[in-house]
Amino acid sequence: MGRHRNCPARSVTRMGIALTYCFIAVDDHEKALAFYRDAVGLEVRNDVGYEGMRWVTVAAPGQDAQIVLEPPGMDPDASPADRETIADLMAKGLMRGVVFTVDDCDATFERIRASGAEVLQEPMDQPYGVRDCAFRDPAGNLVRFNQQPNP
Questions:
Q1: pTM recorded for the entire structure
Q2: Are 39 and 143 in contact (CB under 8 A)?
Q3: Which of 29, 85, 135, 138 is the most buried (most CB within 10 A)?
Q4: Which CATH fold topology does 21-147 show?
């Protein structure tokens, strides 16, 4: 499509941008650490308590993007009913999670399964080109592991 004739041409300046944090609700930080740190292999970057709450930040070694494991319903505008709804969704396993890229899906699967994590999908080749597997973390969040096809 061409440019609308009443709109002047604009140049787009590229800006540096990178993902820094994403947030996952967890209801038990110790169980979450056993999964994300011990089974998955992420490192703890920060562990902060404030007014009876706790936020733990984890990340893959050598990467900047971090996952904040936070108490459910931490949005300051969330009502008590909102927090209850979030807790209900977590209990049903309906919260979204994260997708990791790994070098070896099968080895990752075996390591995490050996930790006792809930398996949702054993490793399989997907029609869209990746081999992947899936687990639920202890709070019910979906966690997938993708292996890109060999070039």
A1: 0.83
A2: no
A3: 135
A4: 2,3-Dihydroxybiphenyl 1,2-Dioxygenase; domain 1 (3.10.180)
